[in-house]
């Protein structure tokens, strides 16, 4: 009897891992991606090429990113939603790449694991008023073997001997990383020294970057065009090069520029029978399979299930709980930097090479009780980055009337580019029911379908946590050898809307971490999927991206997306570890 | 369950489709547009208009006004010791962007992965990446505007870059004439600055938002886009530019840069006062077209 056939919507982190697992174990796999392919040779027997370069202009011209002219998103605050404002922003919200390989074509490739406590937030630390805190229906220890397997195939560097004992107690590891760390970046090393003098424990950042030839791909040469830029030499692992490439070689079929607009259900509404899509010429088509996996990113997955409403699922597929689209989380970033007299060229390398976990929390401080909160949490830190040339020019130009001679002076000095080393904390957002994705009632995309509307406001948890950890980050930067001072930045993700266009949503647009909108859980009354991403009411419809996250954790989410996708796909296929 | 026949959407046929489409597009466009095959970067510089000449999109007078504007944004000698926007060919590069669709492939996305500046023999950047039908639609809307064409107005009307430049340059002349009774180009630098920096003039600031953003791209981006001639934008900033496939050595990555780049006392004082204000702002995201276009609806 042939194995069940599978349709996968999306080709990013979760989708590609599922495609790899299922094609490797003999399933027929058909993948739909609404973007183009920018990696010539992907899936061929030869080398994977790249159309990306050390080119600062191209990403700003929507080379890999979703073009907001074609596919805008709309936004508003919780307060505006309560007051009946349909939207206060149209354009670019959370501009993840729309291309084969998804966000990982230009990700920072940082691969921390979530901690044990992240899966059990409610039972360990209790509720938070105004937030929808819940436990995940699985534990770290259940996910751990999948983390191991993903790290091996993705190609991850790190050094377990340098990791703090607190980190290893929360995220135990059975073995050393497949590759040793990259050459340490100078600015990050200075901040790491500052951290150590204050008693913190910096260590080499685990990341999916080749420090030697691995998986048929070359070693990283620290060109400095990493987070936000496609890799010209494919030294960085990711959905396309680590997984999809091999899935296609094993027979999976990829349809780029194909926009899935509906998941089709059986007439009783209990089974997915396939999808309806527009092909690359805009012609409506259908495809049928035994299993449908949706992994289009938290925003697009929720949108697709909402658009797929039927009489049996009047509020969207799998929305009996009313939770579909809700609990959208982004991570609040809090940023500090140190100023140095030397050229610390903190842009040179794979974005950052140092991390620390000392601000992950929870911290039961007076600052928490003063805000009426049981505890505060921050997150993992990306230590020692800055910006390349054109980005630097863009930062200066954001202040009105600074063009002219002073622009030339600033650029000659290269203050932002050469003399600062930054530190960004991946702060944990609280899940809130009112932070959500729904369908915009008016605005349509180029395909003629309702665009996703994002309603969002920060919880006071994030505001209090940023105010609490920010000065600590700045103090760390000030303590670095040679530092002329440490500065903390007002955080864009915490800004409210209502300020001028481009400012207000810049924060959300610039966080590439999107989680929630279809949370997993054991109780169908309060969750959308089970612990394997299976939609409660539709047994053969599986979600395999960040949408199923129950909490945001204070960690870059992609490794966890991949581990969850591998676990979900193995449940479908019944395969054994490779 | 029969999946659709394998190969229908495979990568190979995708690439063939792109190739076929760009050939068809080129053929179909003959007679409407003089499509220029883009062989090499040198041909771009060689065909750039000289002073006083019309550009590929802008008229001779518009080019002259744009030159004056760019020279205020990024001044060169004698006002500043290092080459500026004029020396870098910034106005010509902006004109090329406005005329991007008179080239095939359009001058939107430079190719990859390498230029020939850091160890590769061939300049891949100079081979621009073809747009597929959807990407082309997006860029035609962005550059040409929606112009009442139904297929371009699915989310409302959009004013394109061409119109923003044409209107903005004319508006500068109108302001110059009403205040000083002469064209913008005839004004001395400080008077030009006065007009360009008027934050109460929304029309001017819409234009400045686009033109400054495009100027920075042309000054500091790869020269294949037509600006940054002789790499002047990278030389005066001591920026290595694209470094692939050579990259950087462990010693370069893990040690301080050359001593010449140390900050002096005055720069340190300035940095400590002003850096937080600069860095705390989101970078310019070139979203001028949203507010202007009726695309933004409350």
Care to describe what's here?
The complex is a heterodimer of chains A (578) and B (298). Chain A has helices at residues 13-24, 78-82, 121-125, 140-154, 165-170, 186-197, 239-249, 298-307, 366-370, 389-397, 405-413, 415-418, 460-478, 506-510, 558-573, and strands at 6-9, 29-32, 73-76, 89-91, 203-204, 253-255, 259-265, 272-278, 284-288, 291-294, 332-340, 354-356, 381-385, 420-427, 436-444, 450-455, 483-488, 541-543. With 578 residues, chain A is α/β, with parallel strands linked by helices. In chain A, the strands form 4 sheets. In chain A, strands 5-12-13-14-11-17 form a 6-stranded antiparallel sheet. Chain A has a 5-stranded parallel sheet with strand order 6-2-1-10-18, with helices on one face. In chain A, helix 1 (13-24) packs parallel to helix 7 (239-249), helix 1 (13-24) packs parallel to helix 15 and helix 4 (140-154) crosses helix 15 (558-573). The longest helix of chain A is centred in the C-terminal third of the chain and has 19 residues, at 460-478. Chain A is globular, with a radius of gyration of 22 Å. Chain A starts with 5 loop residues before the first strand and ends in a 5-residue tail after the last helix. The relative contact order of chain A is 0.20. In chain B, helix 3 (60-73) packs across helix 5 and helix 5 (90-98) crosses helix 9. In chain B, strands 1-2 form a two-stranded parallel ribbon. Chain B is mainly α. The N and C termini of chain B lie far apart (47 Å). Chain B has helices spanning 11-29, 41-47, 60-73, 85-88, 90-98, 133-144, 161-180, 189-196, 202-220, 232-235, 250-254, 265-279, 288-292, and strands spanning 36-37, 103-104. Chain B is globular, with a radius of gyration of 22 Å. At the A-B interface, strand 4, strand 6, strand 9, helix 10 and helix 11 of A face helix 1, helix 6, helix 9, helix 11 and helix 12 of B.
């Amino acid at each position: 009897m042939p194995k069940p056939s599978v349709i996968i919507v999306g080709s990013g982190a979760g989708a590609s891992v599922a495609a790899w697992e299922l094609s490797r174990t003999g399933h027929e796999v058909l993948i739909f991606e609404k973007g183009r392919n920018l990696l010539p040779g992907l899936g061929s027997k030869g080398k994977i090429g790249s159309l990306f370069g050390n080119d600062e202009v191209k990403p700003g011209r929507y080379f890999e990113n979703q073009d907001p002219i074609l596919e805008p998103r709309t936004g508003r605050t919780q307060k505006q939603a309560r007051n009946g404002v349909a939207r206060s922003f149209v354009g670019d919200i959370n501009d993840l790449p729309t291309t084969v390989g998804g966000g990982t074509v230009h990700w920072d490739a940082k691969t921390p694991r979530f901690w044990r406590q992240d899966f059990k937030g409610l039972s360990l630390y209790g509720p938070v008023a105004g937030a929808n805190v819940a436990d995940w229906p699985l534990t770290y220890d259940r996910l751990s073997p999948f983390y191991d397997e993903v790290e091996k195939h993705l190609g991850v560097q790190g050094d377990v001997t340098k990791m703090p004992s607190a980190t290893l107690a929360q995220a135990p590891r059975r073995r050393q990383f497949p590759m040793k760390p990259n050459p340490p970046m100078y600015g990050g090393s200075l901040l790491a020294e500052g951290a150590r003098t204050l008693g913190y424990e910096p260590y080499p950042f685990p990341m999916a970057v080749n420090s030697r030839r691995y998986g048929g791909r070359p070693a990283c040469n620290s060109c400095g065009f990493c987070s936000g830029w496609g890799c010209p030499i494919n030294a960085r692992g990711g959905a396309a090069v680590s997984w999809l490439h091999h899935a296609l070689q094993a027979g999976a079929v990829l349809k780029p520029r194909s926009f899935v607009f509906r998941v089709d259900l059986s007439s009783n509404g209990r089974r997915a029978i396939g999808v309806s899509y527009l092909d690359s010429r805009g012609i409506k088509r259908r495809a049928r399979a035994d299993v449908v996996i949706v992994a289009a990113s938290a925003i697009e997955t929720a949108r697709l299930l909402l658009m797929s409403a039927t009489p049996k699922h009047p509020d969207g597929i799998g929305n009996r709980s009313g939770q579909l689209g809700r609990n959208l989380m982004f991570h609040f970033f809090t940023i500090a930097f140190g100023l140095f007299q030397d050229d610390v060229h903190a842009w040179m390398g794979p974005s950052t090479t140092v991390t620390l976990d000392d601000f992950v929390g929870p911290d039961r401080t007076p600052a928490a009780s003063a805000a009426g909160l049981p505890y505060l949490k921050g997150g993992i830190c990306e230590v020692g980055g800055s910006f390349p040339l054109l980005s630097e020019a863009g930062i200066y130009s954001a202040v009105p009337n600074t063009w002219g001679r002073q622009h030339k002076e600033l650029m000659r000095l290269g203050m932002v580019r050469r003399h600062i080393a930054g530190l960004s904390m991946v702060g944990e957002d609280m899940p809130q029911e009112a932070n959500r994705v729904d369908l915009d009632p008016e605005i349509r995309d180029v395909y003629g379908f309702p665009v996703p509307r994002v309603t969002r406001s920060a919880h006071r948890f994030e505001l209090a946590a940023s105010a609490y950890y920010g000065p600590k980050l700045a103090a760390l930067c000030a303590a670095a050898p040679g530092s002329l001072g440490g500065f903390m930045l007002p955080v864009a993700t915490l800004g409210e809307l209502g300020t001028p266009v481009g400012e207000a949503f810049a924060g959300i647009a610039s966080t590439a971490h999107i989680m929630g909108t279809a949370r997993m859980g054991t109780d169908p009354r309060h969750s959308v999927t089970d612990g394997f991403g299976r939609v409660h009411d539709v047994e053969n419809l599986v979600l395999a991206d960040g949408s199923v996250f129950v909490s945001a954790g204070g960690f870059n989410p992609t490794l966890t997306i991949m581990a969850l996708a591998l676990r979900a796909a193995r449940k479908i296929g019944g395969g054994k570890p490779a | 369950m029969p999946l659709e026949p394998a190969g229908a959407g495979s990568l190979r046929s995708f690439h063939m489709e792109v190739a076929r489409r760009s050939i068809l597009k080129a053929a179909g466009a003959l007679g409407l547009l003089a499509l220029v095959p883009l062989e090499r970067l040198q041909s771009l510089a060689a065909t750039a208009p000289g002073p006083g000449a019309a550009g590929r999109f802008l008229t001779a007078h518009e080019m002259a006004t744009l030159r004056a504007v760019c020279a205020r944004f990024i001044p060169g000698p004698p006002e500043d010791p290092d080459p500026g926007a004029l020396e870098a060919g910034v106005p010509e590069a902006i004109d090329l962007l406005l005329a991007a669709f008179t080239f095939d492939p359009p001058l939107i996305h430079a190719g990859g992965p390498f230029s020939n500046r850091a160890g590769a023999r061939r300049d891949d950047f100079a081979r621009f990446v073809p747009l597929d039908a959807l990407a082309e639609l997006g860029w035609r809307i962005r550059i040409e505007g929606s112009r009442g064409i139904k297929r371009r107005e699915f989310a409302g009307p959009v004013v394109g870059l061409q119109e923003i430049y044409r209107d903005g340059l004319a508006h500068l002349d109108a302001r110059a004439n009403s205040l000083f009774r002469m064209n913008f180009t005839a004004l001395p630098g400080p008077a030009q600055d006065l007009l360009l920096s008027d934050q109460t003039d929304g029309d001017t600031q819409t234009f400045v938002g686009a033109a400054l953003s495009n100027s920075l791209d042309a000054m500091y981006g790869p020269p294949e886009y037509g600006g940054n001639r002789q790499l002047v934008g990278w030389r005066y900033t001591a920026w290595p530019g694209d470094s692939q496939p050579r990259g950087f050595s462990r010693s370069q990555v893990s040690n301080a840069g050359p001593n010449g780049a140390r900050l002096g006392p005055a720069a340190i004082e300035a940095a400590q006062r002003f850096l937080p204000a600069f860095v705390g702002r989101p970078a310019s995201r070139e979203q001028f077209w949203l507010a202007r276009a009726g695309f933004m609806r409350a």
